[in-house]
From TrEMBL:
Protein name as annotated: VOC family protein
Species lineage: Bacteria, Bacillati, Actinomycetota, Actinomycetes, Catenulisporales
Domain (VOC) ranges: 1-108
InterPro entries found in the cross-reference section: Anthracycline_SecMetBiosynth, Glyas_Bleomycin-R_OHBP_Dase, Glyas_Fos-R_dOase_dom, Glyoxalase_6, VOC_core
CDD domains noted in UniProt: SgaA_N_like
One Pfam family cited in the UniProt record for this chain: Glyoxalase_6
């Protein structure tokens, strides 16, 4: 995430999720890698006030950045930035899918990216919200050379992107004329307590905590209006997730 109010964002997210990490004075965006138990889980950088903020952006791991960037255009997407070097860390690019959703690509160097996934305080799922579900599923399957599998319970409304049979991200078809975007899910031990703490720190509750087959979850807009979901882990995950 990149935004003008980096200090305020850190003050919100660090106590909410138990993160640690300070801005890097040598980085032009003062990028602050956030950690849980010393392992990288997220990053928050600074943008000039004149620039639009960049919400939580998922960086998908690739082994050949140039080839992946070429597949963006070949499948109807657009390249915004890159390939570019992140000195001492790796290489990256930013693109959009044919419907306009923004995403990142990451070719790891010394810095691998996420080091923990699916633990309390960490991201546990990433989901595309789009009015173009089927075509988006086809785009990302071609881009990442993976499979896009429709969920049995929602065959025309939800797909999971799978690598070697393991779900890695979701695509959710919506009917409203919503600008497509990727939204993160963060795992918490108690969604009710986390939602209350987030509201006390300036977040807006969009959907209150409720039980679902995928865990108890709530939707919030952080103090900058960026949407996040918080969720607990169900005892048994539905098939296909």
């Amino acid at each position: 995430m990149l935004l003008a109010g980096q200090d305020e964002a850190l003050a919100f997210y660090q106590p909410l999720f138990g993160w640690s990490g300070s801005p890097d004075p040598n980085d032009p965006t003062k990028y602050a890698v956030q950690t849980v138990a010393g392992k990288a889980v997220a990053g928050i950088g600074m943008m000039p006030p004149s620039e639009p903020l960049m919400p939580w952006t998922g960086y998908f791991a690739v082994t050949d950045l140039e080839a992946a960037v070429a597949r963006i255009g070949a499948n109807g997407g657009g390249v915004i930035v890159g390939p570019m070097e992140a000195p001492g860390h790796g290489r990256f690019a930013h693109g959009t899918d044919p419907a306009g959703a923004h995403f990142g690509l990451w070719e790891a160097g010394p810095f691998p990216g996420f080091q923990i996934w699916g633990e309390p305080g960490c991201m546990t799922w990433f989901e595309l919200v789009t009015t173009e579900g089927k075509s988006s599923a086809e785009f990302y399957a071609a881009l990442f050379e993976c499979t896009a599998e429709p969920m049995d319970a929602m065959p025309d409304a939800y797909w999971t992107l799978q690598v070697e049979g393991q779900p890695r991200a979701g695509i959710f078809q919506v009917d409203a004329s919503t600008k497509p975007y990727w939204r993160p899910y963060f795992l918490v031990r108690n969604p009710d307590e986390a939602a209350a703490a987030a509201q006390a720190a300036g977040a807006r509750l969009v959907n209150p905590p409720m039980d679902t087959p995928f865990g108890r979850m709530a939707t919030l807009n952080d103090p900058n209006g960026i949407e996040i979901r918080i969720t607990s882990m169900p005892e048994e995950m539905p098939e296909g997730m």
